[in-house]
Amino acid sequence: RISPDGSLLACGLTNGTIQLWQIPDGKLLRSLMSGNAVIISLDFSNDGKTLLSASRDGTIRFWGIQK
């Protein structure tokens, strides 16, 4: 999922990790550990300050995003 301002790419991995990448240079900014379940959905809030993740095990998390 790309942030509303186009500056970040959030990727959910099968091991429960979320990676945040800087656009356009592709620099990995940070990894977030959500648990062990596959990330099935990601979405940014309209202002890009919060990331929502949903995992296959039914866990939903809200992450504060600082650029």
Describe the secondary structure blueprint for this structure.
Layout: E1 8-12, E2 17-22, E3 28-33, E4 39-44, E5 50-55, E6 60-64
Antiparallel strand pairs: 1-2, 2-3, 4-5, 5-6
Describe the structure.
By secondary structure, the protein is mainly β. 0% of the residues lie in helices and 51% in strands. The protein is built from no helices and six strands. A three-stranded antiparallel β-sheet has the order 1-2-3, with no helix packed on it. Strands 4-5-6 form a three-stranded antiparallel β-sheet, with no helix packed on it. The radius of gyration is 11 Å and the shape is globular.
Features:
mainly beta, 67 residues, globular, 6 strands, 51% strand
Category by helix and strand content: mainly beta
Element pattern in H and E: EEEEEE
Taking pLDDT < 50 over at least 5 consecutive residues as the criterion, the unreliable ranges are: none
Number of strands: 6
**How many helical elements?**
0
